[in-house]
Write a structure and sequence with these properties.
This protein is α+β, with helices and mostly antiparallel strands and 302 residues long. It has a domain at 137-265. It contains 4 helices and 13 strands. It has helices at residues 2-23, 139-146, 254-262, 281-301, and strands at residues 25-29, 45-49, 53-61, 66-74, 87-97, 102-114, 155-159, 165-167, 180-184, 188-196, 200-208, 222-230, 235-245. The strands form 3 sheets. A 9-stranded antiparallel beta sheet has the order 4-3-6-5-12-13-10-11-8, with helices on one face. The radius of gyration is 25 Å and the shape is globular.
Length: 302
Amino acid sequence: MFRNKSSNFYFFLFLFLVSIQSTLTLYCYECNNCTDISSCTCNYSVEVNNTKSYCIIQRENLSNRVGIEIRHIPESLTPYHIYDTYYVSVKETIVYNDTTERWLSISNRTTYACNTDFCNKAELLKELPSNGLSLMLPIDWLNENLQRKQVGDLTLCRHCEGQQICVNSTESNNITHKCLRKDCEGSCLTVETFNKAETTEYCYDSACTDDTSTVPIVKLPQVVITGIYYINKMEFEIVETDVTCNSMDCTDGKIFKDIKEKLEKDLNNIKPFLPSNHMNSIYSTSIIFLMMILFLQIFILY
């Protein structure tokens, strides 16, 4: 009798350990030979630890081709903190076209990340939108805040001495005052990065193109935004904003606040990746194994 109970205990323990191991395992497709979205296939997969890595598919619009990635990413290699590995991230540029005299929204890169077995299948590449989230800002705001009013006008450009300044969120409104203003004949280049992990941190840098050349360089005004749409929370978070501008004092920190508040995006583009059929692999696998263990335990007792 005791021997039977002991055997049952070890058998139960074995099943429990197997279930724990299974919840830590994630299978991702991984191929590096895809060059055409419409014909790309990928059957090779790798096994990774799902607490340290997750799966992605990525479309990058390069100058003369479309770059494709199907692989896993170690969380330690992401340049910013990710608090949910089920998301769509984009890098997009809002730029003024001198020829058409219009503002354009251009998608640079779109990435779908997921954490269920084989969730980054090649067929989903066709669903990744070529125009990302179509990020845009109001035209009047762009003209007023980024465009030089008249040829020859100078702008007061913040100058941070080539060094990023990082502060916590409570000081973010005053961050630009740590950089001196100076007259700029070229374009102002300014960037804000945002990271939220154990602490919240804003980093700011700004400079004038006059400082890198004896001839002032005037660049087309533009806003480059890198952001993440967390699908489970239905939240879009900007992690980096790069601004090239020619208007008066356009590198003031208020510009980043305006961009966050006024940014327009189109979530209809990513409907195929929203959670209608998505279930977190950790919970789903755990439930299955717990049900198996319960069934087998009942069977053994009887």
